[in-house]
Automatic annotation (TrEMBL):
It comes from the Eukaryota. It holds the Pfam family DUF179. InterPro entries: AlgH-like. This is Uncharacterized protein. The lineage of its organism: Eukaryota, Sar, Alveolata, Ciliophora, Intramacronucleata.
Length: 109
Protein backbone atom coordinates (compact mmCIF):
# COMPACT_ATOMS: atom_id res chain seq x y z
CA UNK A 1 0.00 0.00 0.00
CA UNK A 2 2.84 2.39 0.80
CA UNK A 3 4.35 2.01 -2.67
CA UNK A 4 0.95 2.82 -4.16
CA UNK A 5 0.74 5.97 -2.03
CA UNK A 6 4.19 7.11 -3.17
CA UNK A 7 3.27 6.54 -6.81
CA UNK A 8 -0.28 7.92 -6.64
CA UNK A 9 0.50 11.11 -8.60
CA UNK A 10 1.72 9.08 -11.58
CA UNK A 11 -1.76 7.73 -12.29
CA UNK A 12 -0.09 4.31 -12.64
CA UNK A 13 0.33 3.36 -8.98
CA UNK A 14 -1.19 -0.12 -9.28
CA UNK A 15 0.94 -1.00 -12.30
CA UNK A 16 4.21 0.50 -10.98
CA UNK A 17 4.06 -0.63 -7.34
CA UNK A 18 5.48 -4.16 -7.85
CA UNK A 19 8.43 -2.85 -9.91
CA UNK A 20 9.00 -0.08 -7.34
CA UNK A 21 9.18 -2.63 -4.52
CA UNK A 22 11.58 -4.83 -6.50
CA UNK A 23 13.83 -1.88 -7.35
CA UNK A 24 13.79 0.15 -4.13
CA UNK A 25 12.94 -2.51 -1.55
CA UNK A 26 13.63 -1.08 1.90
CA UNK A 27 16.08 1.52 0.58
CA UNK A 28 13.62 4.19 -0.56
CA UNK A 29 14.33 7.56 1.09
CA UNK A 30 10.92 8.89 2.09
CA UNK A 31 10.41 12.20 3.87
CA UNK A 32 7.39 13.89 5.39
CA UNK A 33 6.99 17.19 3.57
CA UNK A 34 4.17 18.37 5.80
CA UNK A 35 0.85 17.47 7.39
CA UNK A 36 -1.40 18.48 4.47
CA UNK A 37 -2.26 16.40 1.41
CA UNK A 38 -0.43 13.28 2.57
CA UNK A 39 -2.96 11.15 0.70
CA UNK A 40 -2.12 12.90 -2.61
CA UNK A 41 1.02 10.85 -3.24
CA UNK A 42 4.70 11.70 -3.21
CA UNK A 43 6.86 14.12 -5.14
CA UNK A 44 10.06 12.53 -6.45
CA UNK A 45 13.13 14.80 -6.16
CA UNK A 46 16.54 13.88 -7.58
CA UNK A 47 19.60 15.00 -9.51
CA UNK A 48 19.40 12.58 -12.45
CA UNK A 49 19.01 14.84 -15.49
CA UNK A 50 18.63 12.05 -18.02
CA UNK A 51 15.40 10.56 -16.64
CA UNK A 52 12.47 10.62 -19.02
CA UNK A 53 9.70 12.71 -17.50
CA UNK A 54 11.99 14.63 -15.14
CA UNK A 55 11.75 18.43 -15.01
CA UNK A 56 14.43 20.74 -13.59
CA UNK A 57 12.90 22.81 -10.76
CA UNK A 58 14.81 25.93 -11.84
CA UNK A 59 17.34 26.38 -14.64
CA UNK A 60 20.87 25.45 -13.69
CA UNK A 61 20.09 23.88 -10.30
CA UNK A 62 20.54 20.27 -11.34
CA UNK A 63 17.56 19.40 -9.13
CA UNK A 64 14.68 17.59 -10.80
CA UNK A 65 11.20 16.34 -10.01
CA UNK A 66 9.26 13.57 -11.68
CA UNK A 67 10.32 10.68 -13.88
CA UNK A 68 9.00 8.03 -11.51
CA UNK A 69 8.74 5.23 -14.08
CA UNK A 70 12.23 6.00 -15.42
CA UNK A 71 13.63 6.12 -11.87
CA UNK A 72 12.27 2.66 -11.16
CA UNK A 73 13.76 1.36 -14.41
CA UNK A 74 17.16 2.99 -13.72
CA UNK A 75 17.37 1.46 -10.25
CA UNK A 76 16.21 -1.94 -11.56
CA UNK A 77 18.92 -1.92 -14.25
CA UNK A 78 21.63 -0.77 -11.81
CA UNK A 79 22.06 2.56 -13.62
CA UNK A 80 21.08 4.45 -10.44
CA UNK A 81 20.90 3.76 -6.72
CA UNK A 82 17.72 4.04 -4.63
CA UNK A 83 19.66 6.65 -2.66
CA UNK A 84 19.81 8.89 -5.74
CA UNK A 85 16.12 9.66 -5.21
CA UNK A 86 14.05 11.31 -2.46
CA UNK A 87 10.29 10.89 -2.09
CA UNK A 88 8.36 13.64 -0.27
CA UNK A 89 4.87 12.92 1.08
CA UNK A 90 2.63 15.76 2.25
CA UNK A 91 2.82 19.51 2.00
CA UNK A 92 2.69 22.54 4.28
CA UNK A 93 -0.39 24.48 3.27
CA UNK A 94 -0.17 28.20 3.55
CA UNK A 95 3.57 28.61 3.92
CA UNK A 96 4.39 32.15 2.94
CA UNK A 97 7.67 33.96 2.63
CA UNK A 98 6.30 37.49 3.02
CA UNK A 99 6.46 37.48 6.82
CA UNK A 100 10.10 36.32 6.86
CA UNK A 101 9.47 33.08 8.75
CA UNK A 102 10.22 31.08 5.57
CA UNK A 103 12.78 32.14 3.02
CA UNK A 104 13.49 30.96 -0.47
CA UNK A 105 17.17 30.25 -1.04
CA UNK A 106 19.32 29.35 -4.00
CA UNK A 107 20.36 25.74 -4.04
CA UNK A 108 22.52 23.44 -6.07
CA UNK A 109 23.56 19.85 -5.93
Amino acid sequence: QFAKLLLKQTGEADALAPAFLDAFGTKACVYLGGPSQQEAGAILVHGVHSLEGAVEVAPGTGIYTGGERAAIEAVSKGDASPLDFRWFVGRHKGLVTSDGSWRAVACAR
